[in-house]
């Protein structure tokens, strides 16, 4: 704990943490020391973990990096976080992110931007930028992020760490401040597959507080990391031939595929004609869900209330106008539009149908192959300001991560070398639902 606290202080300019629980982390460490002496320590004894500012922790503020939640202190603890605490993990602080998880660069945060420790003029990715940098810069051993459309995998790729998004419903969402409820997952950042797998197996599993959480049994992922079979691997023609793909990322991805083939694994190119529909489908459905989820922030129940209001109507309007940032407002408006009576069928219903097609196609592929491999992102970390004036360019950053989110299947990003400016490249591996053990084992084989 003292080691990490020191790093957090010397690297404070990276702006990864919005709050550090210095005293409680030190106290917790002492308690766990005693438990270790008595032989009573949990499976995560002493593991130092940071949590994204979207995860509630009782008695602590949770702001979703939004002005509208300033001053909001949670009365509940996220189930996933509680399970880690129960195994004697030490929660060291709250991590910066894009407001309500909306963004791909961590530039949409009321707490300011997070710097990528590999090159401080570049973004760390988003929305879990603080969680990624906290692991990258040794500010904690493991961190939790949330991944709705890539927010764990993309920042992991940009910072050269491991980032895992589990199957939708594998980890309870209770306590996670909702962005798009049918996509939201809690994911893990780490430097090793073993740490990642261990934390995931403890968080996963049914929770009475989240009726959508799965009752399927959870395996001990961290003890199943040995990989010896021959894998059947597909790669999607449209991703590797995408004009948006940085040539060095293409090269590194192809060289992994080549290596796998040379080691006797079956590697096949397949077509994914739906790729061009994945982003529009994702952004129609997530903005719709967000507009509904975020209607609860009205100045009455949580956090900020405008001091300029003179009646109920103006209190709602001013609180929301002053409290939400620009990107969040854009999404609330888009979502309200696609859900409006005259456009519902044209956008929302159609996007639901396309979602089903993408999911079916992806699952069929994953019945035929064990894994789909593709780059995590089209480019490595870009410079601050490069896309911030152009929301569509920013949305395009999620081109390769949203397929797994729209389909609900698990996906991981692992480091795959660097480009010529020294920026990390990520490799994404996708497997079928609830195949986390297989995904970790194969990733372990590849790292
Ligand atoms: N960048 C994507 C978005 O802005 C993903 C966000 C996420 O996974 N939370 O919606």
Automatic annotation (TrEMBL):
GO BP term, pick one? translation
Substrates-to-products reaction catalysed: L-glutamyl-tRNA(Gln) + L-glutamine + ATP + H2O = L-glutaminyl-tRNA(Gln) + L-glutamate + ADP + phosphate + H(+)
Q: Which residues form the active site?
A: 52 (charge relay system), 127 (charge relay system), 151 (acyl-ester intermediate)
Please list the residue ranges annotated as the Amidase domain.
Answer: 1-439
The UniProt entry's GO CC annotations, sorted and at most eight, read: glutamyl-tRNA(Gln) amidotransferase complex
User: Which Pfam families does the UniProt record give?
Assistant: Amidase
Main EC class the enzyme belongs to: ligase
Q: Which PANTHER family match?
A: GLUTAMYL-TRNA(GLN) AMIDOTRANSFERASE SUBUNIT A, TRANSAMIDASE
Return the HAMAP family for the record.
GatA
What family does this chain come from, according to its entry?
Belongs to the amidase family. GatA subfamily.
Name by which UniProt lists this protein = Glutamyl-tRNA(Gln) amidotransferase subunit A
Organism this protein belongs to: Algoriphagus boritolerans DSM 17298 = JCM 18970
């Amino acid at each position: 704990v003292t080691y990490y606290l020191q790093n957090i202080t010397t690297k404070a300019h990276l702006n990864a943490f919005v709050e550090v629980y210095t005293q409680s982390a030190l106290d917790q460490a002492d308690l766990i020391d005693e438990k270790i002496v008595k032989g009573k320590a949990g499976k995560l004894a002493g593991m130092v973990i940071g949590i994204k500012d979207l995860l509630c922790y009782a008695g602590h503020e949770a702001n979703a990096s939004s002005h509208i939640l300033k001053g909001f202190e949670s009365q509940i603890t996220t189930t996933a976080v509680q399970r880690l605490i129960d195994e004697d993990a030490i929660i060291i602080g709250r991590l910066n992110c894009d407001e309500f998880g909306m963004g791909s660069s961590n530039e949409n945060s009321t707490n300011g931007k997070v710097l990528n420790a590999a090159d401080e003029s570049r973004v760390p990715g988003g929305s879990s930028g603080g969680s990624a940098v906290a692991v990258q810069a040794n500010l904690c051993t493991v961190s939790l992020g949330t991944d709705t459309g890539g927010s764990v995998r993309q920042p992991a790729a940009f910072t050269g760490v491991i980032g895992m998004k589990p199957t939708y419903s594998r980890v309870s969402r209770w306590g996670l401040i909702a962005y798009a409820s049918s996509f939201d997952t809690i994911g893990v950042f780490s430097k090793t597959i073993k740490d990642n797998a261990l934390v995931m197996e403890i968080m996963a599993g049914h929770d009475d507080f989240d009726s959508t959480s799965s009752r399927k049994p959870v395996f001990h992922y961290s003890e199943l990391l040995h990989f010896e079979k021959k894998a059947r691997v597909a790669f999607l023609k449209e991703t590797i031939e995408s004009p948006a793909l940085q040539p060095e990322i293409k090269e590194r991805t192809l060289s992994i595929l080549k290596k796998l083939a040379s080691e006797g694994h079956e590697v096949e190119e397949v077509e994914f004609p739906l790729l061009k529909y994945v982003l529009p489908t994702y952004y129609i459905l997530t903005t719709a869900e967000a507009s509904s989820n975020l209607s609860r922030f009205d100045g009455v129940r949580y956090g900020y209330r405008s001091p300029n209001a003179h009646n109920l109507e103006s209190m709602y309007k001013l609180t929301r106008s002053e409290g939400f940032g620009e990107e969040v407002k854009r999404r609330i408006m888009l979502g309200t539009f696609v859900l409006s009576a005259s456009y519902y069928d044209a956008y929302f219903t159609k996007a639901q149908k396309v979602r089903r097609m993408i999911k079916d196609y992806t699952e069929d592929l994953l019945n035929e192959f064990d894994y789909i491999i593709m780059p995590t992102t089209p480019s490595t970390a870009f410079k601050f300001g490069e896309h911030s004036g152009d929301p569509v360019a920013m949305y395009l950053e999620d081109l390769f991560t949203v397929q797994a989110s729209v389909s609900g299947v698990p996906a991981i990003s692992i480091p795959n070398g660097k480009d010529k400016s020294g920026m990390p490249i990520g490799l994404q591996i996708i497997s079928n639902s609830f195949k986390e053990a297989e995904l970790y084992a194969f990733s372990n084989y590849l790292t």
